[in-house]
Amino acid sequence: MNRLLRQSGFLAALWLSLLLTGCSEKDDISSRNETVFRYPLGAKIKSLDTGNVEDVYGSLIASQICESLYTYHYLKRPFTLEPMLAADMPTISEDKQTYTIPLKQGVYFQDDKCFPDGQGRELTAHDFVFAFKRIANIRYASPNWGGFKERIVGLDAFREYTKQFKNEFEVDYREPVEGLQALDNYTLQIKLVKPWPQFLDDLTSVITAPVAREAVDLYQKDMIFHPVGTGPYRLESWHRGVYLELVKNPNFRQDAFPADGSDEDRQAGLLADAGLAMPFIDRIVFRIIEEDQPMWLLFMRGELDIAGIPKDNFSSAVDLVMQRPKEEMRRRHIQLDITDQPSLYFLGFNMQDPVLGKNKPLREAICRAIDNEKLNELFYNGRWRVAHSIIHPLLNEYAPSIADEGYMRYDPDEARRLLKEAEKIHGGPVPELVIGTVGGSTFMRQFGQFVERQIEAVGIQVRSDYTDWPTYVDKTNKGQHQIFAGGGVRFSTPDSLGVLMMFATKYFAPLGNYFFYSNPEYDRLFEQAEVMFPGPERTALYRKMERMVLADYPAVFTSHRVQYTLYHGWLENYKPHPFLYGYMKYLRIDTEQQKAYKDLLKQLKEANEDE
Hints:
20 helices
């Protein structure tokens, strides 16, 4: 046992050494002429196959490689849709159920050995039909099927058809689907079962990116490592658990930096590249760094271009009163961005668990035991928004008055009273509860300990089961956690329906309802809500459903992320967008300033010594 522990310690030291000395010669910008953007990832990547990407990091990387029909304008606020692979906005039938979408011509897949002579072929409407059918293929087991279920005419029948096959590769994709038609190579037509008000917003997701059949035929199960897209970057290398490298796609079509922005954008220099061809950066290196302090050291040494701020470094980095970097950061030309993220973090309950699922007072007692204000202060330096509900203030239909209704209030005395009710329902003392927690970092270990202490303080016994991120996600999707902590979701469109679908029975995990919450009345209202277009009636219905969920306590909803991001002054054109993942093509790097950073650090050190 001691020998194993020593070996584990040695490997940890070696890992830290690798992180601090650099993971790739191509990451050393001091002796190269190309521009390199270095970005830290806080967790390992599960997949870059667009059909089964299901987390933020996978979406971020895949969105630099693959593209969707529509996207959001990079600069405009309020958020504005615009074509990406589509040539124009769609023609929509009067009943709002048929969308005819013209495609850009002359768009090519990246060069890849899956194509004849390794040369990427032209994109056609058939590639979208194939991509959507593939997600419907039950043998492919896409976690994103929930976004298509009961939406497109004939697609659910196609899913039933695929059940007869032993694996996904036996399925004949020539099987027709009425609602998915390539009218010609450059015209896609989609017929909906019923109106889908969020349809165009959903078509901005990389999940809906076109897929080349040739790539699936060649790579099959290994598609997760071999994304083949039409985007500005292509995957060059992936060292599992260490780093990924993307390089500029030499065959990327002409795509110009936007020329229309606000006066504030102009003053910030965000229109200096208007009309110029993108992308501007030659190479992107994503470094997987699960511990905060190695990431922070790399950023301060100039070996990362951008970074979040660890809780232990926040007070030395940011002046919260002035909302700007502190003097030491400014001397390094480090800049600060503060952006609300439309997200929701929670301590989730598995509603199918025999102890928790039928015991509402127990779930409510745990909710009353968690001090969300204290959690925010201890782990996020008071930066995040404390959650009072499930709908984020950035999303449509947010009700400002919800905070006064007290669903998520901290009240340990009330928790103890509720525990007595819970014990009567259970028929005796509540057994020890197990909390599944991501355990890959010191931060998450401390988070888990905090949650344990809070719950145990009111008399409920708990223990944490720490796993890595892929295992945590897998167990969540399969309903194998009793309680799950540290999880959260980030919403990809401004419409609140994406939140509400997380509690519909038909979207049980892995389709989005990770709580396995089921309420027949809620489901009935959801069926009404999902076909309604924006208006006062829909707003009232959304808010009624919101309160139904809150009153049932399927989770302790703890917080909404507010992202405090530091970035070096050499990173230009940076304007965070809460719903746009494929933004790295817009970025530019001042390589001279980037290369001069080591000299700047030396000067600052000498100046400090003189003082």
